[in-house]
Amino acid sequence: MAKAKKAAKSKGKSRSYHHGNLRDALVQGALATIREKGVQHLTLREAARRAGVSQAAPYRHFDSKEALIAAVAEDGFRAFAKEMEESTQKAMDPKTRLQELGVAYVRFATKHPDQFRVMFGPDVPDKSKYSPLAEASQASFSPLVLAIQECQRAGVVREGDPLELAVSAWSLVHGLASLLVDARIEGHQHPGVGPRTEMLTRRVAMDLFEGLKKQSN
To answer: What is the pLDDT of residues 90-104, one digit of tens each?
Structure first.
């Protein structure tokens, strides 16, 4: 009888730790908590509860709440980079690719507002502490720098440090995305990118290009 109880206890413990994909389950549990309650209410215990694993299980992957938040941000940046890349696949010229990147940026932010806030929020002040997050963040920025360089080679964007120009472009688009996510623009309070918001975003992308384009002599 004692052996049977011990075996059952051991089996239950095994189930609680050997989740199909523990890291992803914890990240999804964390994101669900953030959506419902805000990042300030996230705990490793709550993420474990939502993932259906023991309270000790999260420590196999994350040694702190900040580490878990970093993983939420990392996954966001990876999905973000993928969406940015897909947005330019049908673009026929460098100018269009640059504009589509801006639209994709805003589209992602408004589709995933809670994750977007985590990605660019203050909860992980030093991304370099988490190399996968730092790499994912950089990978999401690289397409913009490359698009600027392509436009420069095509002679449609002015000369200059492509990184500095990319930061300028990013600042404008990120500002719009943040205003939309926080419902600060009248008439654009609905979730996601509806027709009006899509039109506004494309107008801003055109203004962005006007500010970057090469001036004719």
So the answer is: 889 999 999 999 999
